[in-house]
């Protein structure tokens, strides 16, 4: 095994595998073990994710100043972009600050894929035991890990694509919530000759639809266990974002639902 691969497995894949097997040992369900594992991982990553969430809230608080810049330089795209970046720099903001948390999510996803793939490729029980740190986790040589979870085989792709679609839907809600500037910036950007002059608007507009689409496409091919991780981590992100800055970009939708609810009564 190459040195880089050994380091990757030693520092990330094997520890995650062992933690998953600990959870499986006591829950008896690989699916529930993945859900609990995901929550644990997301909790550990809170110190890394929280600063980017607070950064997005600061950007929303700067909305009035950003609107003034768009109005003042609505016919000068270059100057408007420069002033937006200057305002972000002044307040220590980076429109791409959320990338770090996304990178960690992808890294963990790849590691978890390696873990799930251990069951998918049909390795022997002895090989599984060789990866375990503690004797009490080791399986009887006649025993196998049950990868069934409801209608799913967690070691294979979801045959009905339900997990992938749900992941994409929740990712859209998450992106909408985390990018309130898309909703607020649209009316102001439309007043300019070209919406491409609004850096933050365009970045967030693209991410709003690109991330959910990528999530669905990736989820169609991944083992269901890995997609289950994506779904749970996305829901966790939604809840986390709500407690940091409320409904964000979902606020107009929530208000409409509340209005319709009152009318229905």
From TrEMBL:
Entry's transmembrane regions: 7-24, 30-50, 226-247
Q: Do the record's keywords include Lipid biosynthesis?
A: no
Q: Which Pfam families match?
A: 60KD_IMP (PF02096)
Localization annotation: Cell membrane; Membrane
Q: What InterPro entries does the database record attribute to this sequence?
A: YidC/ALB3/OXA1/COX18, YidC/Oxa/ALB_C, YidC_ALB_C
Per its UniProt record, what CDD domains does this chain match?
Answer: 5TM_YidC_Alb3 (cd20070)
Query: Which GO molecular function annotations are given, in alphabetical order?
Result: membrane insertase activity
What processes in GO biological process is this protein linked to?
Answer: protein insertion into membrane; protein transport
Domain named Membrane insertase YidC/Oxa/ALB C-terminal is located at: 31-244
* UniProt entry tagged with the keyword Protein transport: yes
Keywords for this entry? Cell membrane, Chaperone, Membrane, Protein transport, Transmembrane, Transmembrane helix, Transport
Membrane-topology annotation of the record: Multi-pass membrane protein
GO cellular component terms given for this protein: plasma membrane
Main site of residence? membrane
Q: Which family does it belong to?
A: Belongs to the OXA1/ALB3/YidC family.
Under which name does UniProt file this protein?
Membrane insertase YidC/Oxa/ALB C-terminal domain-containing protein
The species is candidate division WWE3 bacterium RIFCSPLOWO2_12_FULL_36_10
């Amino acid at each position: 095994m190459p040195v880089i691969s050994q380091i990757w497995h030693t520092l990330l894949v094997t520890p995650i595998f062992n933690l998953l097997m600990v959870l499986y040992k006591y829950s008896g369900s690989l699916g529930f073990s993945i859900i609990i594992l995901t929550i644990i991982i997301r909790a550990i990553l809170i110190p890394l994710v929280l600063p980017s969430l607070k950064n997005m809230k600061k950007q929303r608080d700067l909305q009035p100043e950003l609107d003034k810049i768009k109005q003042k330089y609505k016919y000068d795209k270059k100057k408007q972009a420069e002033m937006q970046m200057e305002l972000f720099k002044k307040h220590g903001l980076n429109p791409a600050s959320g990338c770090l948390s996304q990178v960690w999510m992808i890294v963990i996803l790849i590691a978890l894929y390696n873990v799930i793939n251990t069951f998918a490729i049909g390795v022997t029980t002895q090989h599984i035991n060789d990866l375990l740190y503690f004797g009490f986790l080791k399986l009887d040589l006649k025993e196998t890990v049950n990868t069934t979870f409801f209608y799913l085989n967690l070691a294979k792709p979801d045959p009905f694509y339900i997990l992938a679609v749900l992941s994409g839907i929740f990712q859209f809600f998450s992106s909408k919530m985390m990018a309130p500037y898309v909703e607020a910036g649209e009316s102001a950007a439309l007043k300019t000759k070209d919406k491409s002059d609004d850096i933050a608007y365009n970045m967030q507009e693209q991410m709003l639809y690109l991330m959910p689409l990528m999530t669905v496409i990736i989820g169609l091919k991944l083992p269901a266990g890995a997609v289950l991780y994506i779904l749970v981590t996305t829901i966790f992100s939604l809840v986390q974002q709500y407690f940091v800055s409320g409904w964000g970009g979902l606020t107009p939708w929530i208000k409409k639902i509340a209005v319709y609810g009152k009318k229905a009564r």
